[in-house]
């Protein structure tokens, strides 16, 4: 299956809209001039866009492409990973984040300096940058590989295009642009996932048949 004119148009529109959000927040009024505005969105964003933005950070191309492949090969035992999120998200949300918020700090690295010293802050910052450079390489490579498979786009041209667009709206629009772009992209991702589920289930013969086929192949598993 290859891209049609409609598919290419939608792909281009997604890139243009993502860049436009950054340009809007960069050019609309006297904004993005202070650290509070650029890095913290002036601390006046609503909970829903922030929540959707955080959700987008967990739903990268690695998860969109990798998790279905993992479950297809090894079964549904992957669901147990979700149990760790109950602790992994609730504990920071109710213990760490309120402290950072009350201290009105820009990042967790500021807290490291307040709690320990500047050496610990620098070490933590360098460690995070090193990890993110490696991670972002994978995150950009995964969708570029998918695009290369269905469109014939040059692999590294796709990597550079997506990287430049993301850098553009982040640099120009600050955190507000990042949050609203994440909201837009989250809605697109969920629409795409829903479309795959609906179309796929209909072609197979319904969700009940999908479940039966998975059981027959031994893909429905508990905790092993």
From TrEMBL:
Protein name: Sodium-dependent multivitamin transporter
InterPro entries: Na/Glc_symporter_sf, Na/solute_symporter, Na/solute_symporter_CS, Sodium:Solute_Symporter_SSF
A Gene Ontology term for the protein's cellular component: plasma membrane
Protein family per UniProt: Belongs to the sodium:solute symporter (SSF) (TC 2.A.21) family.
Subcellular localization, as worded in the UniProt entry: Cell membrane
Molecular function GO terms recorded: monoatomic ion transmembrane transporter activity; symporter activity
UniProt xrefs under Gene3D superfamilies: Sodium/glucose cotransporter
Domain of life of the organism encoding this protein: Eukaryota
Keywords, alphabetical: Cell membrane, Glycoprotein, Ion transport, Membrane, Sodium, Sodium transport, Transmembrane, Transmembrane helix, Transport
Membrane-spanning residues: 6-27, 47-67, 79-101, 122-143, 155-175
GO biological process, one term: inorganic ion transmembrane transport
Reactions accelerated catalytically: iodide(out) + 2 Na(+)(out) = iodide(in) + 2 Na(+)(in)
Bilayer topology: Multi-pass membrane protein
